[in-house]
Design goal:
It is built from 3 helices and 16 strands. By secondary structure, the protein is mainly beta. A hairpin with a 2-residue loop joins strand 12 and strand 13. The structure holds calcium ion. Calcium ion binds next to loops.
């Protein structure tokens, strides 16, 4: 057993030095060669914070916008990029995506969006199947079946188009998510998460993905007053013995006005 561990250790050291050589030679290897740029100008963005909340990995881009993901994770995970003056950005990645160089274009904030939440949220009950979409992802304790946030909207938003933008959402186990092969559960599926704006249901979310934009009906906006967004997760429709909420994770909520 000891011999085996020493052998494995040697193997590890050997492969690590191969990677190091590739790096100094300027060749991209696993997790290397990623860059953050301004989506409009393509100019590199230094000092952006790149985070994988699942495994509490965090790094910053260098003066040329470059960063490495020296992180181990399995399955899909949410990666977020934060930089002052820019819109919060997140992306669902997996090992295959992370193995290739990633070019991330982030957009300058125009002051037209209201950031509602930048922390990763886990809705549900921490009871989920191993085949669930992104089940290996769940490390945060569930805050319960719903999330609510109050925020102010100015009077001029009524004449414009307004959206709730969900940066990333994973773990949804609806029939549609199953048919799109977003999970590997064979015998169960859940109702979709529902979105409420000032008490009225405005959307159902059937699929996992990034940057989902949900229109906010203008007639529901309370101008210059407190407005409220609620996201309620679905229920497992094949479990009748008890209530099993669909465990999902959400990152980066904002209201955008166009
Ligand atoms: Ca559950």
């Amino acid at each position: 057993m000891k011999k085996l561990s020493i052998f494995l250790l040697m193997l590890f050291i050997t492969s690590a030095s191969v990677n190091a050589e590739a790096l100094t030679g300027g060749v991209s290897t696993v997790g290397l060669g990623n860059k953050v740029v301004d989506a409009n100008t393509n100019k590199p963005i230094p000092n952006a914070q790149i985070t994988l909340p699942k495994i509490q990995f965090s790094t910053k881009s260098d003066e040329n916008g470059n960063f490495n993901l020296n992180a181990n994770f399995n399955g899909e995970t949410i990666m977020s990029v934060e930089k002052e003056g820019y819109k919060p950005f997140s992306l669902t990645i997996n090992e295959q995506i992370a193995a290739k160089p990633m070019l991330l274009g982030i957009q300058k904030s125009e002051g037209k969006e209201v950031v509602i939440e930048t922390e990763m949220l886990h809705l549900g009950d921490n009871n989920f199947s191993a085949g669930s979409a992104n089940s290996s992802q769940f490390t945060l304790k569930a805050i319960g079946p719903f999330y609510t946030k109050a925020f102010k909207m100015s009077a001029n938003t009524i004449g414009l188009k307004n959206f709730l933008v969900i940066g990333s959402i994973i773990g949804i186990d609806t029939a549609m998510a199953r048919s799109m092969k977003q999970n590997s559960i064979r015998n169960a599926f859940s109702s979709p998460p529902e979105v409420y704006f000032n008490g009225t249901k405005i959307a159902e979310i059937h699929l996992n993905g990034d940057n989902q934009k949900i229109p906010l009906p203008n007639k529901l906006i309370r101008a210059d007053q407190i407005n409220e967004i609620t996201i309620q997760t679905g229920k497992n429709l094949t479990q009748r013995a008890y209530v099993d909420y669909d465990d999902i994770e959400i990152m980066n909520l904002s209201i955008q006005t166009e």
